[in-house]
Amino acid sequence: MFKRFAAACGALALLHAGHVLAHEPSGRDVREAMKRAAVFFRSISTNGGYCGIYSLDLTRRYGEAFYERAGAHEIWIQPPGTPTVGEVFLRAHRATRDNDYLAAATEVGKALAWAQRTAGGWDHRANMSHFKPDAGKISRRTGRCTFDDNITQGALSFLIRLDEAADQPWLTESVELALKFVMTAQFKNGAWPQWYPLRGGYHRYYTFNDNTINDCIRVMVQAHRAYKKPEYLRSARRGGDFIIRSQLPAPQAGWAQQYSHDLKPAWARAFEPPGVCSAVTARNIRTLVDLHLYTRDGRYLKPVPAAVQWLETSKLRKDRWARLYEVGTNKPIYGDRDRKIHYTLDEISAERRSGYSWQSSYGIPGVIRYHEKVTKLGAARYLADAAKPAGAKERRARATALEPTVRRIIAGLDRKGRWLTRTDRKGRPLKQPVIYASMFVDNMKVLCKYLELLGNGPWARQGGPGNS
Q1: What is the pTM of this model?
Q2: How far is it, in rounded angstroms, from Cα 243 to Cα 302?
Q3: pLDDT category, 466, cuts 50, 70, 90?
Q4: CA distance 355 to 168
């Protein structure tokens, strides 16, 4: 079990913070580092669930940021909280075949099942004081659920993956309840709101912002792939149909962040004016291409060329776009807490300039290339090429390229199995180091990827890619 292994690993000097391996990281080095980190992180869970940030002495816990203090019995559902940690435990299980990771992921799954609302979805946080792991029946609390920030979709996505690895009646029941909820919350036109049961204001609008509809479509495709039930695919296709229906007319053939129920771009928060959104447009293109690949339905590709054309003509400069463009004029627009439209970044407050993404690449060049490649090759060939496993030579090259990062990650693990952060998300120094769930997740992903690249090669167990 984790505790026994932790005691054995504690004496390994090579994993002390600041110690750099004198040789290429081997599979054994990586597995030992992963194990020690997982032992520690599992030890700080709250009934199997996690928060986003922990103080060094574990007396203070936070959600996404320091302004979201978590209560003594609370866990965080919003990424990079509980489902995100569960996903990395599942990946570690796949990479190592160590059942302790599956046990840790199952604990996460049970926490999420108890955190689930009676309606079937999740809020961004959950009070677990009612948690009774040995109870014969899960006790759930009432309340609204959100699709914002991949909260309900992320929890459900993890549970579907867990259900493929650990067959448990409570898990099946939780997944089925959540899938029923997602389909119930979907409007007849295929869209999803930000919250359900419906709340007032922009929370009830048809919402693309923060990937709301895109994540709903993705998880319904995932559910269809896992369970083959036609209603799940129908739900995903209806979501795709709404993307097609809500595309704005040329020459601004993109999409807004949210739409009122008369299908017009709408205000959300005070600093989120209606407009054509480059980031949403890129994500919708990707979702449409994904749906085409899954269904082989050419309808999903038809809206893309006009959207790409709008993106190409709306660049601020190379690989840089404004987030929002005014409907009609196509001028870049910006928002502030005064609920007014501004036309330059200089007009808005410093707090909003730094607290919201107004200009970026938004993954647009990559999504354009994705569409071009699928169109050029066709769905069948694209999928066949994507399914081809990398050869030993290519895997070795990738592992070698990853090696310096793996060294740094192993060197950064302290004696207790912690990766500590001494700056906040904006790079500002903190008075005391903290423990970020996101750092644990990111580092574990890299270590898992390294193990996956090592595979079953002659250098997998002892040496790294340079030791064969």
Answers
A1: 0.93
A2: 11
A3: very low
A4: 42
| Angle at alpha carbon of residue 28, lines to 24 and 32, rounded to 5° | 110
User: Cβ–Cβ contacts within 10 Å for residue 18, how many?
Assistant: 8
Closest CA to 180 of 130, 229, 127: 229
- Which of 310, 319, 182, 173 shows the shortest CA–CA distance to 247? 310
CB atoms within 10 A of CB 193: 24
- Banded pLDDT at 459 (limits 50, 70, 90): very low
Distance of CA 58 to the CA centre of its chain: 25
Q: How far apart are CA 100 and CA 456, in angstroms?
A: 21
> For residue 191, what are the contacts with CB-CB under 8 A and spacing of at least 6?
206, 207, 213, 239, 242, 246, 259
pLDDT tens readout for residues 79-99? 999 999 999 999 999 999 999
- Pairwise CA distance, residues 103 & 166, whole Å: 9
Which amino acid, residue 384?
Answer: A
Q: Which tokens belong to 370?
A: 């994705």
Q: pLDDT tens digits, residue range 378-437?
A: 999 999 999 999 999 999 999 999 999 999 999 999 999 999 999 988 889 999 999 999
Question: Among positive and negative, which fits the CA dihedral 19, 22, 28, 34?
Answer: positive
CA–CA–CA angle 120, 188, 292 (5° rounding): 90
Give the pLDDT confidence score for residue 21 in this predicted structure.
66
Cα–Cα dist 323/339, whole Å? 17
Question: Quick count: other Cβ atoms within 10 Å of Cβ 374?
Answer: 20
Residues 6+ apart with CB under 8 A from 231: 183
